[in-house]
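Our collaborator T.R. sent over the components below with a one-line note: 'Predict the complex.' Nothing else. No constraints on interfaces, no templates requested, no preferences about which chain binds where. So this is a plain run: every listed entity goes in together, and whatever single assembly comes back becomes the starting point for the next discussion.
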Amino acid sequence: MSTNGTRLALALGGRLEPRPRAGLRRHDVARRAVPPLIVGVALLALWQGYVAVSGVRESIFPSPLEVGRALVRDRSLLLSSAWTTLSEILLGYGVAIVVGIALAVAVSSSRLVERAIYPWLVVSQMIPIPALAPVVVLWTGFDIRPKLIVIALVTFFPIAVNTIDGLRATDSELVGLLRTLGAGRWEILRIARLPGALPYVFSGLRVAAAFAVIGAVFAEWAGSTSGLGYLVLTYNAQTLTADVFAVIVVLAVIGVALFAAVGVIERLAVPWWRVDE
Amino acid sequence: MKLAARGLAKRFAGGEVEALADVSVELAEGEFVSIVGPSGCGKSTLLAILAGLLEPSAGEVLLDGAAPAGGLLGAIGYMPQRDLLMEWRTTLANATLGLELAGVGRGAARERALAEVGRFGLAGFEGRRPSALSGGMRQRAALLRTFLAGRDVLLLDEPFGALDALTREAMREWLLGVWEADRKTILLVTHDVEEAVFLSDRVYVMSGRPGRVRTEVTVALPRPRTLELTATPAFAQLKERLLAPLREEARAALGSA
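Returned assembly:
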């Protein structure tokens, strides 16, 4: 259970191991970017070809070109909605980081606290949070609060679990050494445990980034008057399927951007540790 | 006596495993003493007790003739076997750890560390991460961290155990130089008899589990010492005096297995 987050991060983000710092050369970038680009273009071509050959109706299955046209046509609404959703995501994600790390520190501070809290952390993830979203809206109304709560609920868990793993992984001999140098438990946390846990924290942040977008869409579906999730509902009700796809593209871009941003921050914050993308 | 341990015993796992039985060691001020013993003789356990990390099951530890008021923890310098340098700190920031924890300001701590990097062979590597250092440099950085913490008594647990033979020899000579300049009281644990003779004023030989002091050998070789000393007959004789009881221990361990 406890390493699920890390494993997912590995699946999403590559290998977990320290690597010497090496500059990214231009041909490295090309070597990394070209294969997925080829696959992407091939999939789009297949999609376009299928729509053209099968004669399926646009309202059922729009072609990539039609989705592209919808993207251009709806651009101003998409942009303002994207801004709404992005701010919800960033705020909810921020809350999740603070709550997740605080919980992890609390849980790893003593066996008793761990026994008391950890099972409930797990239980909190067994609740289907999308099902809870309408209730949260009922309590808090249509403003940003329910979105914040729902996003934080789906994203704090991978952050907390990975941080707990990281704090646990602290070398006990290092802790002993610090004690002989006069360090108390807070100094040990600040000097050794938290910095040592950072690579794990970032694994959690990557997974959480992927969950955050899903959380935002569910939260908006439960009750909102703006945002990309709301836009999906509106377009879908009018069977403007190409426009629905356009929104999905924007949502995906936000998710990827968030994931990439976490990677960039990780490089800056944990330069001694490199996760290969 | 600077440091005196009397009748130390340690049992683990609810008394099932007896690691140490009645160990007494003494170190005079400025003395360099080594402990050699077969693996599993409780050398590291002994150091952990002296460092205040483990409570002995019996016995007492006196520093300057009395049990330290605030406990042993933090009163004695301790260098574990592994260098335990933190990768998220530069070499210098690792070395100043003890000063930082003692409340010395960042600038002052840096200054004091920078004054020592030359002597510890780390000049030019102050700002590098530990992964950029060689094995010998890492150990010297860990030793610098121990020295800078400013304790009078230092416990060194096989500081050169993981190094290749040539580096190890060079490090021994270097450590003697550092010690002769500062005259700290050092208790070194090693399984290397040559190392013990070359560095020490006295050597304790420990028995296999449960660990106790089997014999004590005084090394009356002149100082300052250089590596050439290791080729003299007097040196070989001392080595043999340490090896004989150790060989017996090894045979006994094989016989009882």
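Summary for T.R.: Residues 150 and 219 of chain A are 6 Å apart (CA to CA).
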